[in-house]
C-alpha cells in the first residue's frame, strides 16, 4: 500500500482518506496536505561528499540472536539499539519486539497511541509516509513528518519514495545523481529533528505497478536507489535502510518478473522487508497460507532471501483485506501471521499493521467498532487484541 501526502501547513493535521486505487497486487492512497510557504529547511553542508559505495559502518548487523551483545540502555527511539535487542523464538512481540501501526486517520502520535491502547499494549514503532508531490516536498519539505511524531517515544519508520508521483521519467536523472542534494537534505532533516536513527523504507514496493519508481528498468531503479542511499548516509550516518517488496506477485514488466532482481546489494540495505496482505491470493486454510508464504514473492521465500544475505527482516505493512478476493474478514490470517512472527522473532526487525478504511476499497482497519466508514473486521480485531496484547 502507498500513502501519498503533500506538504502540510504547520500545525494542521491531515486526514488519510483522500483517495484509494486498488490494483490486483496492491493499493495506492492519495492524500493532500499543506502549501510550500511553510516548509522548514535543512540544507546539507556543501562540503559533504557522496561516496560511490556504502560505508561499512552504515550496515546494521543482521546476526542478532538471543546471545547477542545488548546495549546497556536501549534508547526507545533508536532503531539500531532496539533491533539489536534479543528476541527469542516462539514469542511475539515479547519484551523487545518492535510492533506497531501507521497513524489512521491521521499520521501522528495520537492516532498510533489510540490504536495501541485499543489493542492493550503500547506500540514500540510507528510508520509514516512523506509527500510525493515533488523532490522538494519529498525531502527538505518533509519536516512535518517528524513534527507529527515529535512526542512518539518509539522507533519511527518512514516510507520514502525515490521519485515524485508521475515521475517515472526522473528515475534515470536520479540514477545520474541529479537529485543528490535533495537526498542529502533529507538525511540532514532527519538529524535536525532528532530522528537520524530511524528506519527508512526507501523506494519500497518497486514491484507494484502503481509506484512511479517501479522497476521498469531494474538497473535504473538500483542506480537511483544507490544514489539516494549514499546521499542520505552522507548527512545521516545512523539511518537504517529497509528494502521492501510487495508480496505475492511481480508482473513480467517489473524487475524482470522477480522482485529480487531489483535488490540494490548488501551494502545498500540494512533490512529486507515485505508488505503482506491476505489477498491475491487470500488464505482460506493454513495450508494455503504456508504455500503462499513459501512461493516466490512470499513471506517465507523473502525471509530466506534476507537471511541468505545476512539481513534482518521486516513486515512493514500487513492486514486482512475483506474487499479483496477473500471477500470477508479472515481472523485466522491474523493468527497465522502472529505465529509466523513468533517463529522468526530472532531475525524480525519490526512489523506494522496497516490501518486503513475509506468505506470503498481498503478495509484493513481493526479495533474501530464505532467508525461507520470501516467494515467491522470483528473476528480479526478480537484475535489481534488477544495475541498482541500479551
From TrEMBL:
<keyword id="KW-0472">Membrane</keyword>
<keyword id="KW-0812">Transmembrane</keyword>
<feature type="active site" description="Nucleophile">
    <location>
        <position position="317"/>
    </location>
</feature>
<keyword id="KW-0378">Hydrolase</keyword>
<keyword id="KW-1133">Transmembrane helix</keyword>
<feature type="transmembrane region" description="Helical">
    <location>
        <begin position="12"/>
        <end position="33"/>
    </location>
</feature>
<dbReference type="InterPro" id="IPR022790">
    <property type="entry name" value="GH26_dom"/>
</dbReference>
<feature type="domain" description="GH26">
    <location>
        <begin position="74"/>
        <end position="358"/>
    </location>
</feature>
<dbReference type="InterPro" id="IPR017853">
    <property type="entry name" value="GH"/>
</dbReference>
<keyword id="KW-0326">Glycosidase</keyword>
<feature type="active site" description="Proton donor">
    <location>
        <position position="205"/>
    </location>
</feature>
<protein>
    <recommendedName>
        <fullName>GH26 domain-containing protein</fullName>
    </recommendedName>
</protein>
<comment type="similarity">
    <text>Belongs to the glycosyl hydrolase 26 family.</text>
</comment>
Amino acid at each position: 500500500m502507498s500513502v501519498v501526502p503533500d506538504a502540510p501547513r504547520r500545525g494542521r493535521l491531515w486526514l488519510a482518506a483522500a483517495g484509494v486505487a486498488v490494483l490486483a497486487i496492491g493499493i495506492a492512497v492519495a492524500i493532500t496536505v499543506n502549501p510550500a510557504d511553510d516548509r522548514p529547511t535543512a540544507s546539507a553542508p556543501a562540503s559533504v561528499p557522496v561516496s560511490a559505495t556504502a560505508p561499512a559502518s552504515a550496515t546494521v548487523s543482521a546476526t542478532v540472536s538471543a546471545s547477542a551483545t545488548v546495549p546497556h540502555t536501549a534508547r526507545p527511539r533508536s532503531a539500531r539499539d532496539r533491533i539489536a535487542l534479543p528476541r527469542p523464538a516462539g514469542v511475539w512481540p515479547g519484551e523487545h519486539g518492535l510492533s506497531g501501526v501507521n497513524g489512521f486517520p491521521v499520521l501522528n502520535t495520537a492516532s498510533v497511541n489510540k490504536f495501541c491502547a485499543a489493542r492493550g499494549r503500547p506500540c514500540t514503532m510507528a510508520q509514516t509516509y512523506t509527500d510525493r508531490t515533488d523532490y522538494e516536498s519529498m525531502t527538505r519539505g518533509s519536516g512535518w513528518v517528524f513534527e507529527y511524531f515529535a512526542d512518539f517515544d518509539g522507533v519511527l519508520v518512514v516510507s520514502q519514495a525515490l521519485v515524485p508521483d508521475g515521475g517515472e521519467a526522473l528515475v534515470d536523472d536520479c540514477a545520474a545523481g541529479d537529485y543528490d542534494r535533495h537526498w542529502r537534505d533529507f538525511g540532514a532533516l532527519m538529524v535536525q529533528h532528532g530522528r537520524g536513527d530511524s528506519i527508512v523504507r526507501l523506494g519500497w514496493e518497486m514491484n507494484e505497478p502503481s509506484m512511479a519508481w517501479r522497476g521498469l528498468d531494474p538497473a535504473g531503479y538500483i542506480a537511483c536507489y544507490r544514489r539516494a542511499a549514499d546521499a542520505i548516509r552522507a548527512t545521516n550516518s545512523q539511518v537504517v535502510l529497509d528494502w521492501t517488496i510487495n508480496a505475492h506477485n511481480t508482473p513480467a514488466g517489473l524487475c524482470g518478473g522477480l522482485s529480487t532482481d531489483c535488490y540494490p546489494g548488501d551494502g545498500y540495505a540494512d533490512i529486507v522487508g515485505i508488505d503482506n496482505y491476505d489477498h491475491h491470493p487470500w488464505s482460506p486454510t493454513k495450508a494455503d497460507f504456508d504455500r503462499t508464504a513459501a512461493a516466490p514473492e512470499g513471506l517465507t521465500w523473502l525471509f530466506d532471501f534476507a537471511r541468505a544475505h545476512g539481513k534482518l527482516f521486516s513486515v512493514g505493512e500487513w492486514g486482512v483485506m475483506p474487499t479483496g478476493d477473500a471477500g470477508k474478514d479472515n481472523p485466522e490470517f491474523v493468527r497465522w501471521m502472529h505465529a509466523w512472527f513468533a517463529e522468526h522473532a530472532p531475525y524480525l526487525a519490526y512489523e506494522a499493521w496497516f490501518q486503513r478504511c475509506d468505506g470503498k476499497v481498503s478495509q484493513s482497519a481493526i479495533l474501530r467498532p464505532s467508525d461507520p466508514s470501516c467494515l467491522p473486521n470483528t473476528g480479526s480485531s478480537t484475535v489481534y487484541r488477544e495475541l498482541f496484547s500479551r
